[in-house]
Amino acid sequence: MPAGNETDRELDVEQEYLTTLYAEADTLREHAAARLTAADPATAPFWRAEVSRLEAAEDGLCFGRLDMRDGSRVHVGRLGLFRGDEPLLLDWRAPAARPFYTATMADTHGVRRRRRITTRGRAVLALDDELLDTEAGGDDVLVGAAALMAALTAQRTGRMRDIVTTLQAEQDRIVRDDHPGVLVVQGGPGTGKTAVALHRLAYLLYTRPHLRGRGVLVVGPSQVFLAYIGQVLPGLGEHAVVTSTVAGLYPGITIGRTDPPESAVAKGRADLAVRIAAAVRTRVRLPGEPVEIAFEREVLVLDPRTCRKAADAAAHTGLPHNQARLVFQQRIVAALAQDLIDSMENVVFTETGESLDGGSADGRLSAADLRALAAAGVVVDPGQEDGPRRLLDETDAARLRAALLADTGVGAVLDELWPPLTAPEVVAGLLGTPGDVWSPADVPLLDEAAAVLGERAGETFGHVVVDEAQELSAMAWRMLLRRCPAKSMTVVGDLAQTGDPAGATSWDDALRSHVDDRWRLAQLTVNYRTPAEIMAAAAGLFAAHHPGLRPPRSVRHAGEHPWRRRTTLEELPGIVAAIAARHEDGRLAIITPPSHHDRLTAAAAVRTPPELTDPVVVLTPGQAKGLEFDAVLVVDPATILAAPLGHNDLYVAMTRATRHLGILHPGPPPAELAGLLEHTA
Known about the structure:
Layout lengths: L3 H35 L5 H13 L5 E7 L4 E5 L3 E3 L2 E6 L7 H4 L8 E10 L2 E9 L15 H7 L15 H7 L6 E6 L5 H15 L2 H5 L1 E4 L3 H7 L2 H4 L6 E3 L16 H8 L2 H11 L9 E5 L2 E5 L1 H13 L4 H26 L20 H9 L18 H13 L1 H10 L5 H9 L11 H11 L9 E4 L7 H9 L6 E5 L13 H9 L3 E6 L1 E2 L4 H14 L7 E2 L8 E5 L4 H11 L5 E4 L2 H11 L11 E4 L1 H4 L4 E7 L1 H6 L3 H9 L2 E10 L10 E3 L2
Parallel strand pairs: 2-4, 7-13, 7-14, 8-9, 8-12, 12-13, 15-16, 17-21, 17-22, 18-19, 18-20, 20-21
Antiparallel strand pairs: 1-2, 1-5, 3-4, 5-6, 10-11
Helix pairs in contact: 1-2, 5-6, 11-17, 11-18, 12-13, 13-15, 17-18, 18-19, 21-26, 22-23
């Protein structure tokens, strides 16, 4: 262990260097702010993004140093800083910075010493050194304690923190994976899969800057979850990212009900896409007999053959229903207009009612006809002398077509044959529902109908991150992949945590029909968050329902075993209220079945919807997905288990804690939890 003055000297060295880095960053920020002030509309977005990028790096600008075997030294941080050609700070995503995450004593990558630098604001607080090459020589002063363990055991804040300073080699490999298609990151509780996905997105934006122009999307299971992760990407210097739930990608509807499991499963099947397309096609009704249409003082006749030809031409375009409808209308109106023109051209009357050309079928006017027309003041184009004499030119024909399209009677017939449709109208008709209040399972159906109709274009993105992806139905996958034409995605989830009955049981089944073999599986195997004692408590539940899967390996012990306490349904609110009132050690999540949620929210006197920065929150297992807390109290595990895939919901609930886990069970405990330590009071 180094003497105190040696530690202080190393701290002073890093503090001096950090001050230099901040001075350089300040200069760049001032320059960018000045350029933004003077920028025109075309360049302002660039300078605004540059100011945001530099401001985001204010906290934790530099967090590491590599001392190389060849004697060189580099510092690693949130962004790259240069003085001329001299690198002052390496962006953590740069290839030269990768050894900071991957170097080990077995494979040093040329690194002699790795130093992790802990800062607060612009002050260096602590250093943590690892000597990786003991044969390289040098009089190294080693300082600090394990940075990773310090981060893991720190109290939760109610917001996800980035892990850029503590990325482990297994995580780093996935962050820098350059697979161009769909990368699936399968990881159990506490493996950091969400953080890894967000860091991979930041890495891709660094290595593929064109993605910024094409847009990136992060999809999460709930607004609570999106608020929880909301600070990660800005902290990594990335602001130009759209975040949304699946339902949020189809705005303008009211989500006001939840389907029973069997309905959610039925609505999530891929064959709903076929049924929606068929429902739209059947709304086109072509007549079997001629249709008479009143237009001004004429009666037009629309024959079935003309309708079929117009419908075939519209379908041949490949356009969505509402756009193809316009083609159909134009073809029909063109045919009706031509019939009118032909009738007017074939029979021309004088003021006395005498036919000039006798209704000649080819429309050719005789010399006598021409003289009569001239006498009547009708000028005939002399260029028509060698062909049929036409009274109406293309301008006249265009006006006639416009008049037909604007006519209410004609429009009514056209709408009856090929009606304009809306997605809610189609889906409500297919499901036999009123179509005013929708369920989450309806949203992908509405989006599918909108795509078939061409009702809305829908924003597309160059890369999409999908978290808790195991919850997506086949129809939800179709909805997301429509928004990512390049099929470039980072998909993260855990098949052992699937709670939606329409969700995934196999990544291959979920993805292959959409992307063929353009997907690859990466696995996270180390649990950094959940202590071994809690994972052991959940081991029986996991093994009973997922014999083919292996749980992640925990890297730490909390020193405290989970407990259970028997109670009654009547006593639950009082016990929960007492536990919430006396809780002082970090953040507590009370995870309960939906049937108890409102009652326990009132008993614990907490806000709804939950605010994760509060010391106590009440959540359902679905709301708790992807979140972490210092302590968790699971209420009524038997009711949680009774739901479809309830074993996965209970597994989620039990693995959210970083330190403490308690379980309240009315009546006897479920068999999977009977071995837990019992508290009697």
